[in-house]
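Anyone? Bumping this.
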Amino acid sequence: MAAAVVAERVGRDYGAVCAVSDLSFEVEPGDVVGVLGRNGAGKTTSIRVLTTIVAPTRGRFAVAGVPHTRPDEIRRRIGVLPEGGGYPARQTGEEHLVYHARLRGASRPSARAAAAALLEEFGLADRARTPLHAYSLGMRRRLGIARALVNDPAVVFLDEPTLGLDPAGRRVVLDHVRAVAGGRGAAVLLSTHLLDDVEACCTRVLILHHGRTVAAGTVSEVVALAAAPRSAVVRVAPDDARRAVAVLAATPGVGGAGEAPDRPGELRVDLAAGNGAADPAAALRALLDADIAPLGLTVEGARLSDAFLEMTGAA
Amino acid sequence: MSAGRSAPGWWVVLGQELRDVWLGGRGPALTFAFSLILSAVAYLVATNTALNFLEQREAVGLIVQVSVAMGGILVVIAAADAISGERDRGTLEALLLAPVPRRQIAAGKLAAALSLWPAAFLVALPYVWFLGRGVGVVGDAVVVGLLVGTLLALELGALGLVVSLFAGSNRVSLALSLFVLLALFAPTQLSAGAQQGWAGDLMLRANPLTAGVHYVGRVLVDGHSLGSEADLLVAPAVAAIVLATVALLASGRMHLRPGGAR
């Protein structure tokens, strides 16, 4: 199956300012790719280039097999939720979807049918005739994703779809994102700086920093590139705490351990300073071998957020 | 998705823009304001006629001139909002993401802005009929008004669209468009002496607005035939064609940022 998106050394300058440089990656159909980066990293510019809103200054890319030299054809095959959303206050949800479906070539009856189905799918059917100025932020985001699907696209670009939403609203939007990839088989590029969103629903990650790609791959691949377990919190029975500290201190891969003040049974374990590779599993095995039952283990420094901070110099 | 016949992009944009203008309230509000101004002018003209200060033909000519000028202002207000307004409201990107050529988007928006002109002229028709009844000028007034008003509406709409494409904000677009419009109208306020001689005549004929307004006066007030003063329509016709062409060509450079490179 052909790749949904192929970008080769794509760059975009605004005058003397390089917004994106050497953007190279591939996305397969059904993938949900998290495009990560700090503010100003080039996420929105990358999406605008790939969605043909702005032309690349250099490099080339293809979306759904269509080269970037045919922007109208690319726009026929993609769905986009832009950063600004773009919701005319006076239009109703139904009018908005019908309008965008017709702009993408649907006849009026087909557009109405598609709008009705999407409003139902996104839980907005009962607000179909409500003007958009009366929609909540979460409803607008759902409508924006629905709008991105009116032409049954091969690739969907979502720019900060969960920004400003409460936890429940975020979960609903991310459920829809997963459904777009899983149910429709579309590739999804999700631009965000919310790392939890990426860990929750992305199969692959692309990290941008100062307009350059600094990492690309699955979440675990990217984590392995830069993140490493640095410390852990182990909980044991308070009576076992002193013995557990001694066992852990003697374990290869563990630099040291100590009891947390005022928290009986909670041990802070230093993994990064140990001799040899940090190994949280070795610490657990050592406790079990010493007949000490671990009641909990939290490893710190091995999450996507740790890799992201390491790669973007914000650690 | 493809069942039934799909409409061209400009037609879809036009339909939505017409809904926005007329059902969104802007069109009716502007037309209502226009009708108030026209009522005030017609009242003054009618009362002057009763006092024999103004002949009926002059009264009709004045009403048609006011209608043509005000119709142009309504069109330019709507056209100046077409692109810069979308930018300010944050809705332009979603529109540009549609697989519709940007010239078609501009054409649909220009056509919707032009819809204010026939509406304004419809409002003016009862006043023309009332003031012109009995002197056989109503038919000419309708033809001349439609002809001149359509040409001026097209050129002013195109002017507003071009300004809207490149203006940094909607306020700038509206202010600049109205400033150009007033600058074009300014010669009509010059004294009769300043409009004499070859320079005055050139200024009158070269400026599409003054030429159009004078054509209305020559036909309706002076009683000249429609064809005998046709040379006064050259500037409005050329301006309409040139500005509409420029607007459609420039709209190929419609960008998210005003004047930004693709």
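Late reply, but here is one note on the structure posted above: Chain B has a mean pLDDT of 89.
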